[in-house]
Design a protein that fits this description.
This is ABC transporter permease. It comes from Nocardia terrae. GO terms for molecular function: transmembrane transporter activity. This protein has about 325 residues and is mainly α. It has one domain: Orthogonal Bundle (ABC transporter involved in vitamin B12 uptake, BtuC), CATH 1.10.3470. The chain is about 80% helix and about 0% strand. Helix 1 packs antiparallel against helix 13 (about 300-330) and helix 4 (about 105-125) runs antiparallel to helix 10. The longest helix has about 40 residues, at about 1-40. The protein is globular, with a radius of gyration of 20 Å.
């Protein structure tokens, strides 16, 4: 028993050390990138631009936090871009032409729709042991079609002023929507690092069979992670409506790829069991800073897309070297 406890402690210590090393690496890369744009783009460090960066990375941060839970258990969710559109139009319909009193109901509907889509994806994946890649690809089309059918492909504009006012509000110079994103990051960090469920999430991603043999229902853990991802999508839909004052059935295209990119750049393993929401936040910040800085430098959309893709590839390669280093240090 003592040796087993020691092995578990050593494994957890190794995982924590790997996370710290990965977060430090992405943090250094973020600082270096910001330093480059400080020199190359004169307007990069203005207070207005910094607020813009925080606002721009808010949605991706929230979506990426939910994606982190899914990836930690070895899954993937390709449907978040379409689900955010479905959540937005359902919530937008509830608020269309109504006053601010309709906002709580709309928020609840958005969270419920997101959770339900996550539940369906997780349940189908685990009940029939279908790869989550395929299931969520199907959900991508279902949710997008449902959003367009529900609104007859019409964008909803008449949203309560109270919601849109919050979308433009700042606290001590920090956008209110970004504060929401930081609170979600803090909550997710607490769940993953300070609760039994969080330890089970990591354990399931590392060795699902061992967790199952110890008496835990790994299928339930995975489904809950998909539901958490769906709830984050629901929150992101509300934030989108608060920022732009519209609910569109065509929003969210490509959002799932940005979320996955933030998680991967943040040091998570697509095979599961390794990653952190702090790393995810840093990954989202790096993508946001990169996009904003290149835009200020006058780089075209096509070139920015190429650079972003190259950064993701480099991050994966560096992560492979980091894993080799950690293996040698633990040997």
């Amino acid at each position: 028993m003592t040796s087993l406890t020691t092995a578990r402690a050593d494994s957890r210590a190794g995982r924590v050390a790997g996370q710290v090393l990965g977060e430090a690496g992405i943090g250094v890369a973020l600082v270096a990138l910001a330093g480059f744009f400080l020199a190359a783009a004169p307007h990069f460090a203005t207070s207005g631009n910094l607020r813009d960066i925080m606002t721009q990375i808010t949605l991706n941060t929230i979506l990426a936090v939910g994606m982190t839970f899914v990836i930690l258990v070895g899954g993937i969710d390709l449907s978040v871009g379409s689900v955010i559109a479905l959540c937005a139009v359902v919530a937008g319909k509830a608020m269309e032409g109504a006053g601010s009193s309709s906002v709580p109901l709309a928020i609840g509907l958005s969270l419920l729709i997101g959770a339900l889509c996550g539940l369906i994806s997780g349940f189908v994946t685990e009940r029939w042991k279908v790869p989550s890649f395929i299931v969520t690809l199907g959900m991508l089309y279902v949710a997008r079609g449902a959003a367009e059918q529900y609104t007859d492909a019409r964008t909803i504009y008449d949203l309560p002023k109270g919601l849109t006012t919050f979308g433009t509000r700042t606290f001590a110079g920090v956008p209110a929507v970004f504060v929401v994103a930081l609170l979600i990051v803090a909550l997710a960090w607490f769940v993953l690092s300070r609760t039994v469920f969080g330890r089970l999430v990591y354990a399931t991603g590392n060795n699902e069979e061992a967790v199952r043999l110890s008496g835990h229902r790994t299928s339930l853990i995975k489904v809950v992670c998909f539901v958490i991802g769906g709830v984050c999508v629901g929150v992101a839909a509300v934030i989108y409506m608060a920022r732009l004052g519209v609910a569109s059935p065509i929003l969210g295209q490509g959002y799932e790829l940005n979320a996955i990119a933030a998680v991967v750049i943040g040091g998570a393993s697509l095979s599961g069991g390794r990653g952190s929401v702090i790393g995810t936040l840093l990954g989202a910040c790096l993508l946001g800073v990169l996009t904003n800085g290149l835009l200020l430098m006058g780089v075209s959309d096509f070139q920015r897309t190429m650079v972003t893709g190259a950064v993701i590839i480099v991050a994966v390669v560096l992560d492979a070297y980091r894993k080799q280093l950690m293996t040698r240090l633990s040997a």
